[in-house]
From TrEMBL:
It comes from Collichthys lucidus (Big head croaker). Keywords: Membrane, Transmembrane, Transmembrane helix. This is Popeye domain-containing protein 3. It is found in: Membrane. GO terms for cellular component: sarcolemma. Belongs to the popeye family. The chain crosses the membrane at residues 84-102. One of its GO terms (molecular function) is cAMP binding.
């Protein structure tokens, strides 16, 4: 038997040509400007905040960053996987930008409610979504009061809502004596609201009369308490703004309170009186409060 001719039998398999070029060594130079621009966009994007505008800021910069990364990966044949991942992330972020923009556009209000949000709720960090629930609770209705018409009459009007003045000025009196004014973006009935429990009923102890054409928004007690039961955050926000409004009304009363001797009467400390007021203050209409000694005499 003759030995096989190994030289004639060639079992060597030629390696197949790769479908893409092989990267055999590191590049000596730096990447192009598109690569650095992509990372700059990503850096600014991850500094975004919360809320609708924060999300819009975040995903807008991320979309630009991943788009630049996609362009950079496309120009380099050794980064096929990077191209696919960056392109996928670019599509996801672009979809988020469109989604947030649509939601931001859909959450829009009338001019009066926009001003109400800017003056009372935005500074507390209330989102447009939560404010939308607050507006829906009042059905988006704006009420009006003609000049010299009453919003509430002392001893007659029931306390069945919570209202905020949007425009005009309302005079508050008790037994025909002037107490203070209510100006736009102040509650009309915050003391009455805070004085009652959800299950209690009551009537106004003061008269509220419009000095000029007024517009206000009102929430019914039952609907508002149902909203509070569903959203505890909104309940805490209303508790804060209502009690802050009451404090401002007390301070306005304190500035108007003088005794017969012309000394300022402190409603928080009935036994203590400040120095006499100025002649300009005395020329205005003040609430006459008896001195502590006269009341005990």
């Amino acid at each position: 038997m003759e030995p096989p001719d190994w030289e004639a039998m060639n079992f060597t398999v030629e390696p197949a040509a790769p479908g893409y070029p092989l990267c055999e060594e590191w590049k000596d130079g730096s990447e192009g400007s598109v690569f650095h621009l992509a990372n700059i966009f990503l850096f600014f994007g991850f500094m975004g905040g919360s809320g609708f505008y924060g999300l819009l800021y975040l995903f807008t910069f991320l979309t630009l960053g991943f788009f630049c990364s996609t362009v950079w990966a496309w120009s380099d044949p050794c980064t096929t996987d990077s191209f696919l991942w960056n392109f996928a992330l670019f599509g996801v972020c672009l979809g988020q930008v469109l989604h947030v923009s649509y939601r931001l556009r859909s959450v829009s209000f009338e001019k009066d409610f926009q001003e109400l949000y800017l003056c009372m709720f935005k500074k507390l960090g209330v989102s447009l979504t939560h404010f939308g629930k607050i507006v829906a609770c009042c059905d988006g209705d704006i009420h009006t009061i003609e000049p010299d018409h009453c919003f509430a009459i002392e001893g007659k009007t029931a306390i069945d809502k919570l209202s905020v003045l949007l425009s005009g000025r309302v005079r508050v009196t008790v037994n025909g004596e002037f107490l203070h004014y209510i100006y736009p973006f102040q509650f009309l009935d915050s003391p009455e609201w805070d004085s009652l429990r959800p299950s209690e009923e009551g009537i106004f102890q003061v008269t509220l009369r419009a000095d000029n054409p007024c517009r206000y928004v009102a929430w019914r007690r039952k609907k508002l308490y149902l909203l509070f039961a569903k959203h505890r955050y909104i309940a805490k926000v209303f508790a804060l703004v209502v009690r802050n409004d009451i404090a401002e009304k007390l301070y306005s009363l304190n500035d108007k309170a003088f005794d017969k001797a012309g000394r300022r009467y402190d409603l928080r400390l009935p036994s203590y009186c400040h120095m006499p007021g100025t002649e300009l203050e005395k020329a205005d209409v003040f609430l006459q409060v008896p001195v502590q000694g006269e009341r005990t005499a």
